[in-house]
Every structure is written in structure tokens, then in C-alpha cells.
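We treat protein structure as text, and this decision shapes the records that our systems exchange. Such a record has a labelled line for the sequence and another for the C-alpha cells. The record that follows is passed on verbatim for readers who wish to inspect the format:
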Amino acid sequence: MTRPSTLLDCDGLILAGGKGQRAGGNDKGLLSWRGQPLAQHIQSTFAKTCERVLISCNRNAAQYQRMTPFVFPDAWGEFAGPLAGIYSAQPHMSKEWLLISPCDTPLLTPEYALRMFAGRRDNLISIAWDGERLQYLHCLLPASSFEDILRYLQSDGRSVKRWLDSRPLQRIDFSDRPEMFYNINTLDELAHLDSSQGQ
């Protein structure tokens, strides 16, 4: 696919609200790779395709605001999980679709947004499939999903996977581009990212 001449009718959300426990307690979105924070790589990618780039974070807001003015904490209690971060994006959205990525997948390209948006259908949630597994934090949600997310959170649900598994979904095939979803969980994985991808 080629880059669209205009931005897609969606906003992009970067999830950067975790504690980074497997990364030594570091804020993963601000860990540096190739001279930029991990979240900046996602922001640069989303800025090419999405109307707005939103960032959900629970610390270091000033640093994230250098990437986009649309920065906010969880509205459901700090560190309540990625689904709370997704729900917190609703007041900041300008479009009817929200494209999501965690902050720790810096190999994403604009192809992610283009393919996800082109494959959308009705009000179904779309989720990326890498050929082996569903990528639960790489999904495209219609705005109509937020009422259901609220009910799930109010029932003490927190798991994105369990919530998505309870909803009608469609898979968007990325089996030819699984490397885009390589995610960084530890400092060692970050240090070896280039070599692990054969770069």
C-alpha cells in the first residue's frame, strides 16, 4: 500500500501507562532506540496516517507532551492496565475510529494503519494477526466500543484480551509482516533489537 494523500479518518493511541516492571521499572515509552524514545517511533509512524496522536501515560507527562499535546493519565486509577488507558482516550478523540499500539513496538510502519483501516467493516473491532497469534494491543476500535468498555471496567474487568475475546472481532492479516509487532519487554531485548531483526 502507498501513503494516503490525506490522513485516515481515525486517531492513533499510544499506550505508555505501564510500570515497566520487566524493564527495571523504567518508563518503556521513554527508553531510547536509535536516538529516540520508543514512543517517539510510534508517534512518527502514526503522524503519517492518523488525524491525532494520543498518548496514555501515568508519569513523565511533560516528556510525552513534546511528542503530542494530547497526553493524559488513566481515568480509572493509576496503572489500572491498558484497557483503562484505552477508555481514557475517549474525551480526546476527534474521529470515530481509534487505532491502538503499545509504546514498545518501534518497528511499526505506516502499513499498520493503512491495512487496519482499509480492512474495517461496519462497527466491528479489528485486531492484527501476525500469522501465529492475535496482537491484542494492536487493534482498531469504533467509538461505539467505549460504552461496553465502561461496563467491563465497572464490573472489575481489566484484561484487554478477555474483553476483546468477548466481542465480535475480525482479524486483519499481517502474516507477511510479523516483525512489525516485535515488542520490547526488557532492557536486554532493547539492546539486542537490531541484531534480533537481522538489521
Notes: Residues 11-196 form a domain with the Spore Coat Polysaccharide Biosynthesis Protein SpsA; Chain A fold (CATH 3.90.550.10). The chain has one domain: 11-196. The CA atoms of residues 149 and 197 lie 35 Å apart. The chain is about 25% helix and 20% strand.
